[in-house]
Amino acid sequence: MHCQWGNHEVGTLQPVNEVVALCREAGVTVHVDAAAACGHVPLDLAGLDADLVSISAHKLGGVPGAGALIVRRGSRFEPLLVGGEQERAGAPGSKPSGLLAFGAAARTGRRRHGRRGTRSRRQIAAVVDAALAVEGVTVVGPTAEERLPQLVCLGVQGVEAEPVLIGLDRAGVASLRSACASESIEPSPVLEAMGVDSNHSLRVSVGWPTTDADCDAFARQFPRVVVDLRALRG
Known about the structure:
This protein is of the alpha/beta class. The protein has six helices and eight strands; from the N terminus they run βαβαββαββαβαβα.
């Protein structure tokens, strides 16, 4: 079974401990995707007791393309590519140099975890306050206490997300994306399952390089962009 620790689109935090416990009782192998949660919420992997947990380096400020698969002691799985004994037959070749940067980013993230989480929640709260001040804008998904601290999904009535993103990009506001997959016109299956219109939804996220000035820029530009686009629609 596959379970996300925290969803990367609307931020929902899953009850992973309960999910893993049920899977263990049923004898079901469980993989937890912790890529979006790692570095943002506490991860007690020893207490979780999942068979497999995956994390990604770039979410922590490491090199894109590097990651880690944490395998529960005694677990066995069939590798996609046959490897040598130096990798316990789980991967070919030797460890890439990007893992050194991954380790450094993880150590830095661990030291700054508490401050980063507090800052992310404060910055996203400022983003939400500015967004909800615009008529017809809503938060999609769970409350702040039930979602990842670094992101929020917004629903925008009366205008599609892509023009909003273009307008914000022209205004110098980054770290946003629509709820459609990159390079795809297919709607998000997550939002579709929730009964949410993907074309009118966008995700706003903050990260380790995000400053309060970036959030202030969003607070200034988002209302202007939405109001101007609605005016164009008549």
